[in-house]
Amino acid sequence: MARMLAIEIAPRVIRAVEYQPGDRPVRIFRAAATERPGGEPAAVGQFLREFLDRNGFTAKSAVVSYLGPVIEHRVYTIPPVTGSTREELLRGKIAQDSATAVAELRVTGEVVGTVVEKGYERHEVMTLYTPEFEIRRLVFLLVEAGLTPVQVVSVPVALAGLHPPDAADELCGFVHLEPSRCVICVSGSGKLRFAREFALNMPDEAERMVMELTRSLLYFRQISRGGAITRLYWSGDPPTEEARLLISERLKLDIGAHPSGTAASFEQGVPGDAAVFGAPIGMAVSEWGADRVNLLPVKYPSGRNAGGASSP
Asked: CA of 104: how far to CAs of 31, 134, 135, in Å?
């Protein structure tokens, strides 16, 4: 099987790993990160192409974890249906929550649990939605970089795939930090149950960051009727010592060794910290199928030879 690229694209940073699908732990053959420049998708795509070439990446098929603009995450309870019927029901739910016209949104969902209501089984569906226009801009950027995206999900979905096997019955928290924003998400048995993103003026503003993490976890406890995380992991830019201390004091949690460290193996001579590359490693280790969330437009053509991508 050919090697693939797992890439994290955020407003201020790009992180990528080249890996061999099917291996456990996943073998990482290349890893590199760079600051993301400003500009239109065509310019950023060209920058990404040059960055990948310069660092020796050769894989062209890519699984992508995307951070920003805000991707909404909601768990909706609906009847056990699939395909277009599920999407229609989800769009009806979203219409009650979103100020944006539902027709302008890319909507995708996956089943994360089941409940019984009034004697009937219903599915809990983790639903992601974001403006379709923004996803098309992302796809155009990737095609300009010479890549063929096969899966596009949010960073929280990618991180949930790293839920430790020995914590199957526990709720785990994943914090992901990049220069302009932070994400906190909660995973249960490898399924995303909650995610919240907040902006940061400075990545080292520990006091505000921990306050937002505390608020987020209290809100999750409320909507999940008492759910509380027992483990906390940190990826992306590393935490400051002040942040570690405040998390220990206020949340009564220590930041554990990131599970990406055991899920992936960097080949000899490949530099990289698994926690820093947590999001792309999460993409690399996860199984992606038709039943998983995928923000790629439904009619997306696979590469230029299949019709290309028009400039947004």
From this structure: 35, 10, 11
> pLDDT tens digits for 247-279?
999 999 999 999 999 999 999 999 999 999 999
Whether 215 maps to a domain, the answer reads yes
Q: Which two tokens stand for residue 2?
A: 């050919």
Please compute the mean of the pLDDT values over residues 74-100 and round it to a whole number. Answer: 94
Residue type, 215: R
Same domain, 201 and 140: yes
Percentage of the chain exceeding pLDDT 70? 95
Whether this prediction's pTM lies above 0.85 is answered by yes
Which structure tokens are listed for 180? 């302009």
Residue 260's contacts (CB-CB under 8 Å, 6 or more residues apart) are 162, 235, 274, 275, 277, 278, 281, 282
Q: How many independent structural domains does the chain possess?
A: 2
Is 60 exceeded by the pLDDT of residue 310?
A: no
Tell me if 162 is assigned to some domain: yes
Both tokens assigned to 13: 């940073």
How many angstroms separate the CA atoms of 110 and 295, rounded? Answer: 12
Give the closest residue to 76 by CA, choosing from 175, 178, 193, 221: 193
Give yes or no: residues 100 and 14 share one domain.
no
